[in-house]
Design a protein that fits this description.
Helices cover about 30% and strands about 30% of the residues. By secondary structure, it is α+β, with helices and mostly antiparallel strands. The chain folds into two domains: about 1-155, Anthranilate synthase, CATH 3.60.120.10; about 175-230 and about 240-445, Anthranilate synthase. It has a 20-stranded antiparallel sheet that branches. The relative contact order is 0.19.
Length: about 450
């Protein structure tokens, strides 16, 4: 397998480019929001692997094998973190391969628990340097010829992306659980905490809406407009499109260091500057939210400590506050130094799924989650990201994430961490706050009022 790249000293329009391929099977978009540096557009895979939690071979070892096939790229020091490698999704249930959690719940669409691609074509935009990197991977043809053809394609005039103007008929929202049942399940989690089983569990549910028609790529543009997403992504798996506006980093590593940035603590944004500041201050002084974050920081420190250099795991940031389009979040940064030789599978086996969306202790929390939740989580609270052949990697926690199925059903997913002093009513309200950006996206998309420009 061969690879070649070209650097273009101009920033192309990512939305206009990707609009030409968003409908293709396994086309994928990753970006880091309005203030991020890189966007990755990838399609036309030369290899694809579907992962299932009950595969005889550990799915994380399968990732190592696929990554080993990716050609090495002789790139300069200022190259983006991704040029050649593996991109895709890791569903929450892949964590069941490592520990016995319970009997599998129905998988009505037959969707794999993970899908990874080694793309034949990729375009990486460096917003800071206003540069575009174009990469082609081939199995037999000349990689130089392929990358020059791809570059020519990128430079072809693109028709402006027009906002959809035709309304999309849709059903009312259909939560899979009524409020009273969610409150009761919060109380059940609190009972497990009182009995000493766990310190915290992340309890979630799904909301469905049926639509008559509509373009999932346009829905993703609406999600970016209403929700934003520091670690966002779109992945067109046939029959099951993933649209993620995640604010949370699961893992990011290079050849030397690794970090995770867990979120615990949420408040809505205010309606004016004064109320916004008051809500921020309320989160900053909440003992309950601080305790919730500390529990997960301890869990993440333990997970990284399984493979990082002895004594290197640290918490350089604790109780920081981040402003997003619809919410305030409280975050921490947990960081460690990697040994000289370590495989991606070793890292993922020790950390997946992320502790912020399971609870602590992780395995017992996952067992209780399985008992209390109605459905498989799938991509929700799994991860979407990349592994580069040079040793770079980044994955989100797939929250603020929707799926769009071939049956024209949109599913969105919400939840929150439950601790000893959680108030069930407050926890339910928090799930509604977290849903707002996604619901507004569906409203704008179905009304045909999306602005397609880059924000």
């Amino acid at each position: 397998m061969l690879a070649a790249w070209r650097r273009l000293e101009q920033a192309l329009d990512p939305i206009a480019l990707f609009a030409r391929v968003a409908h293709l099977p396994y086309s994928l978009w990753l970006d880091s929001g309005a203030h991020g540096r890189y966007m990755i557009l990838a399609w036309d895979p030369v290899r694809r692997v579907d992962l299932r939690f009950d595969d005889p071979q550990c799915p994380f070892e399968t990732i190592d094998q696929l990554l080993a096939e990716a050609p090495q790229v002789d790139a300069p020091a200022d190259a983006p973190p991704y040029l050649s490698g593996v991109l895709g999704t890791l569903g929450y249930e892949l964590g069941w391969n490592l520990e016995r959690i319970g009997d599998a719940k129905p998988n009505p669409h037959g969707i794999p628990d993970g899908v990874l691609i080694l793309p034949g074509k990729a375009v990486i935009l460096d917003v800071l340097e206003k540069a575009t990197w174009v990469v082609a991977v081939t199995e037999s043809a000349s990689a130089d010829t392929a990358v020059d053809e791809l570059l020519s394609w990128c430079l072809e005039p693109c028709a402006p992306v027009e906002a959809p103007t035709t309304p999309v008929a849709r059903s009312p929202l259909r939560p899979e659980i009524v409020k009273a049942d969610y409150l009761d399940r919060v109380r059940q989690v609190k009972q497990y905490i009182r009995e000493g089983d766990i310190f915290q569990a992340n309890l979630t549910y799904q909301i469905a809406v049926e639509v008559a028609d509509g373009d999932p790529w346009a829905l993703f543009l609406a999600l970016r407009e209403t929700n934003g997403g520091t670690y966002a992504g779109y992945f067109n798996i046939p029959g099951y499109v993933i649209l993620s506006g995640s604010p949370e980093l699961f893992l990011r590593w290079d050849q030397q260091t690794i970090e995770t940035i867990p979120i615990k603590g949420t408040r809505p944004r205010g309606t004016d500057a004064a109320s916004d500041l008051a809500l921020r201050d309320e989160l900053a002084t909440s003992e309950k939210d601080r305790a919730e974050l500390l529990m997960i920081v301890d869990l993440e420190r333990n997970d990284l400590g399984k493979f990082c250099r002895a004594g290197s795991v640290e918490v350089p940031v604790l109780f920081d506050l981040e402003a997003h389009r619809t919410v305030w979040h409280q975050v921490a940064v947990v960081r460690g130094r990697l040994p000289e030789q370590i495989r991606a599978s070793e890292i993922l086996r020790a950390t997946f799924p992320g502790g912020s969306i399971t609870g602590a202790p992780k395995i017992r929390a996952m067992q209780i989650i399985h008992e209390l939740e109605n459905s498989r989580r799938g991509i929700y609270t799994g991860a979407l990201g990349f592994l580069d052949a040079r040793g770079h990697s980044a994955w989100n926690i797939a929250i603020r994430t929707m799926t769009y199925t071939a049956e024209r059903e949109i599913r969105l997913y919400v939840g929150g961490g439950i601790v000893a002093d959680s108030d069930p009513e407050d926890e339910y309200k928090e799930t509604q706050v977290k849903a707002q950006g996604m619901l507004r996206a569906i409203d704008r998309w179905s009304a045909g009022t999306i602005r397609p420009e880059w924000v």
